[in-house]
Amino acid sequence: MRQHDLSFANFVLRFGPDEVLLDYAKDIVLPAFTRDTHVRSYGETSLYLYDVKFTQVDDEDGFPVLALSGHFVKDTVLRRQQVFRRDRGLVEDQRSMESAPSSFFVLILNNHRLLYFAETAAAPSLDTFRTTVELFLRREWHEHLKRRYEYVNVTDRVTMKELRRRIPPPVLAIVPVAGEDAIAETITRFGLIKEVRFKLIEPNDELDASVAVAAVEENFRPLAPSRLEIVAARAKGLNKEETARAITEASEGHNTQILVTGEDEDGIKMKADNDEFALSVPIEDPPPDDSGLRGRLVETYNDLVAAAKVRRIPTPARVREKLGQLFDLL
Questions:
Q1: I need a surface site. Which of 78, 156, 234, 309 has the fewest CB within 10 A?
Q2: φ, ψ of residue 66 in degrees (nearest 5)
Q3: CA 103 to CA 117: how far, in whole Å?
Q4: How many other β-carbons are positioned within 10 Å of the β-carbon of residue 29?
Q5: Of 140, 201, 186, nearest in space to 9 by CA
Q6: What is the pLDDT of residue 219?
Q7: Any residues with CB less than 8 A from the CB of 300 and at least 6 apart, and which?
Q8: 3-state secondary structure of 159
Q9: pLDDT value of position 274
Q10: How far, in whole angstroms, is CA 237 from its chain's centroid?
Q11: Which residues of 82-103 are buried (b: 16+ CB within 10 A; e: fewer)?
Q12: pLDDT value at residue 207
């Protein structure tokens, strides 16, 4: 992801089969994002969320659009061991330098869209963001269980095991939003497409299935499967134009992980997934302040929705009801 590119994803957070992000927004999600004691560390690298704000970022038919926004920082040390000199060749030269590349994010709670912007070169990736946020969410989940355990056992004996069954641990999936141009360009690199696999991620509260997979979800979700996939395969190769069309249609729902396998023109095995298909747009002259940048990113997202580059998902009534419980935190 290049510096000053904006990418889009669906932030799918579930607590077991029945509860989602907004069911634990106050108790788990907001603290995971805003508590400044959360740090993920390995080696000389620390990852953290910085200066996260909970704000209204837009208006949808008179109803506020709420979001979490802030910086995702990778605080690390860059080290070198040697340099190249034309007159001497490779020369040992060990030096180190502190570095803190970052991304800026806007998580829209009304529809769980994630706007992810690379502020600097070498900004932390979307996958690194996912694993870090999931770690913070699990920490807050543990704290929430402790509080519930102490509260419930004042009047009723409930084991911690039972509480974990009632409130399963958070599981986070971040699915990049696909772009039609990126899909077409990626498919042209294949000489032969042998298989396309669509893995359906159960969405949050919003109605987020594309037309192509809505019937499958409706029929099979009541079975509570741990995995739900659609596979199209042909040893002699699938039609490339129809493959691109099917991927474009399936990706409109933003809750479908896609994997294409096949060969290039020389018979070498190839794979492509949501990362290759991801929609991204450059942001020229990004505002230097957080408020201005947040506004620019949301405006860019709305422009893409208006241009039908990203599917618009209105805020369902049940989501509005849950969001209403957060207004006092603004």
A1: 156
A2: -105, 150
A3: 5
A4: 25
A5: 201
A6: 72
A7: 6, 115, 281, 283
A8: coil
A9: 86
A10: 31
A11: eeeeeeeeeeeeeeeeeeebbb
A12: 47
State how far the Cα of 233 lies from the Cα of 255, in Å rounded to an integer.
21
Count of alpha carbons within 13 angstroms of residue 292, beta-carbon side: 6
Whether pTM exceeds 0.85: yes
- CA separation for the pair 102, 119 (Å, rounded): 6
| Whole-number pLDDT of residue 310 | 82
Burial 165-200 (b: 16+ CB within 10 A, else e): eebeebebbbbbbbbbebbbebbeebebbbebebbb
Calculate the CA dihedral of residues 71, 138, 169, 202 and round it to 10 degrees. Answer: 20
Nearest to 111 by CA among 320, 261, 257: 320
Backbone angles phi, psi at 73, to 5 degrees: -110, 135
> Pairing mode, if any, of strands 19-20 and 40-42?
unpaired
Quick check: 330 and 116 in contact, CB under 8 A?
Answer: no
Provide the sign of the torsion angle of the four alpha carbons 270, 272, 277, 278, taken in this order.
negative
Mean pLDDT check: name the lowest of 166-175, 210-219, 244-253.
210-219
Backbone angles phi, psi at 285, to 5 degrees: 45, 60
65 has pLDDT over 90: yes
Residue type (1 letter), 219: N
CA distance 252 to 60: 21
Token pair for 131 = 């694993």
Least confident of 8-17, 58-67, 207-216: 207-216
CA distances from 19 to 24, 171, 231, 265 (A): 8, 11, 28, 46
Task: Determine the pLDDT at residue 209.
Answer: 47
| Angle formed by the axes of helices 180-188 and 240-251, nearest 10° | 150
pLDDT single digits (tens) 117-147: 999 999 999 999 999 999 999 999 999 999 9
Helix (H, G, I), strand (E, B) or coil at 264: coil
